[in-house]
């Protein structure tokens, strides 16, 4: 029994060491950050993309999500909020794709799937029967922690 406990401790220790090193290895290097900046035009300050804004000085990204409100009930407002958050998260993925790979001039459609890191909600408001949400995420977090699983650009 004591041997099994020792083995379990060894496995947990090795696993935590491996996870600790792999997390540090994922951080984007300043050289890669500069390369991404140059590939996107080397704009100083805030740069507008199709799916959001990148503040190259403050190293943040901002996107908006919009969803129509279907009625005046509180449940409609909650559904609108949820749909706007989903739209904003999708825009984060699309902005990540645009930063990494660029987009063609005549974009017909783009489908993207992936995983997004939790972003800060800057604002929520209702305007013209639409629920609007603004999200901000550190640029490094977008480039390090957000992953695109697949994309189809037409």
Describe the structure.
The chain has 154 residues and is of the alpha+beta class. It has one domain. The chain contains 4 helices and 7 strands; from the N terminus they run ααβββαβββαβ. It has a 5-stranded antiparallel beta sheet with strand order 1-2-3-6-5. The chain has a two-stranded antiparallel ribbon with strand order 4-7. The N terminus is likely disordered.
Keywords for this structure?
45% helix; 154 residues; disordered N terminus; alpha+beta; 7 strands; two-stranded antiparallel sheet; globular; five-stranded antiparallel beta sheet; 4 helices
Strand order of the largest sheet: 1-2-3-6-5
Q: How would you characterize the largest beta sheet?
A: 5 strands, antiparallel
Span from first to last CA?
Answer: 60 Å
> What are the low-pLDDT stretches, counting only 5+ consecutive residues below 50?
1-25
User: How big is the Rg?
Assistant: 20 Å
Class based on secondary structure composition and strand pairing:
alpha+beta
| Helix content, binned percent | 40-55%
How is the topology of this model organized?
Layout: H1 2-25, H2 30-39, E1 46-48, E2 53-55, E3 60-68, H3 74-101, E4 110-115, E5 120-127, E6 130-138, H4 139-145, E7 147-153
Antiparallel strand pairs: 1-2, 2-3, 3-6, 4-7, 5-6
Summarize the structure.
The chain is an alpha+beta fold and about 150 residues long. The protein has four helices and seven strands, in the order H-H-E-E-E-H-E-E-E-H-E.
């Amino acid at each position: 029994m004591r041997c099994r406990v020792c083995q379990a401790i060894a496995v947990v220790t090795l696993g935590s060491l491996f996870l600790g090193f792999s997390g540090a290895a994922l951080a984007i290097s300043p050289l890669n950050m500069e390369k991404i900046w140059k590939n996107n035009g080397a704009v100083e300050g805030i740069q507008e993309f199709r799916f959001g804004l990148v503040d190259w000085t403050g190293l943040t990204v901002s996107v908006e999500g919009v969803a129509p409100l279907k009625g005046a009930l509180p449940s409609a407002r909650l559904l609108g909020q949820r749909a706007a958050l989903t739209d904003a998260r999708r825009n984060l993925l699309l902005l990540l794709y645009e930063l990494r790979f660029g987009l063609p001039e005549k974009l017909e459609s783009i489908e993207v799937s992936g995983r997004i890191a939790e972003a800060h909600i800057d604002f929520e408001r209702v305007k013209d029967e639409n629920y609007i949400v603004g999200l901000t995420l550190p640029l490094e977090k977008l480039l390090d922690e957000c992953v695109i699983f697949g994309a189809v650009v037409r």
